[in-house]
Amino acid sequence: MVTEAIWLRKRNGIHLNQLVIQNRIPILILLLLTHLPKLKVAISLTPRDLYRYGYLNTSDFLLQLCHVWLNDSGCTSHMAGRRGFLSNYVEKEGGRVKFGGKDRGTIRGYGWLTNGKITIKNVKYVEGLDYNLLSSHQLSRSGYLVTTFVMGCYVKDEDGRVIIRGREWHGLYACKEKIYLLSKASKEDSWLWYHRLSHQNFKDMNKLVSKKLVVGLPELCLGKDALCPACAQGKMKRSSHMAKIDTNCSHPLDMIHMDLCGPMCVQSINGKKYILVLIDEYSHYTWVEFLRAKFEAADTIILFIKRVQRLMDRKIKKL
């Protein structure tokens, strides 16, 4: 059923693409060929057909087919002209918005813009607004870098990745492409999912979000603002003993270190399987004694002490 028709006559000088923009593109456009005295042909065309046959130029076609958001440096907030674009919508009268001319729009509420992977919070619904506006100021406050040039613009996140691209369209920057990254989550949401996922690092959590590998995980860019105390403590390790730089030994035999090793899998020619190592702390002189059995260590140490003290004419202070 045809609900709206546009009559085109060559003598009135009105172009089809101008009518399309002024009427916000009717769902179905009935193009009546009126170059004959009587109507003989009626063709139903969609905007895609209009573009295909040359009635719409490329910029108009992209603007009307996609839910385009215009990057506006003079806009103080994100604004949507259609209520249907917003989820989690809250009705709240928020005053009026003054446009470039004398027209004014009324703020009817706010909500989230969700389309595929994108989620932008606090988007105001302005009744009477013809286009959707992305505020460069709000993007900058969220930590993004907004850069404009002659042919377009782009928005980068904190890691330098381009998340929004726009092209120049009649003096405006139209973001016709999908925004393929996510808006930044709050600190509370980030840490909540950090603990729910058993202290998984934020880089891997964002991969789970972008690839939709976890059911119920919100489509938000998770980020941390501080170190996790539990993870920091879990990665710490204590030294086995305090570091000691200077020794208290000033003479030989002030301290002797001993260690007993064995039994060895291969015994010596004399059948000895144990090795007793003794080291002087001051000179680092080392003695090695070989034992047949472990119980021989006590007698060997006593004989060693007597022999060394007699040779050095000094007493061993510590063992």
TrEMBL record:
Keywords: Hydrolase, Protease. Residues 69-144 form the Retrovirus-related Pol polyprotein from transposon TNT 1-94-like beta-barrel domain. Residues 181-236 form the GAG-pre-integrase domain. One of its GO terms (molecular function) is nucleic acid binding. GO terms for biological process: proteolysis. The keyword Hydrolase applies. Pfam families: gag_pre-integrs, Pol_BBD. This is GAG-pre-integrase domain-containing protein. It comes from Centaurea solstitialis (yellow star-thistle).
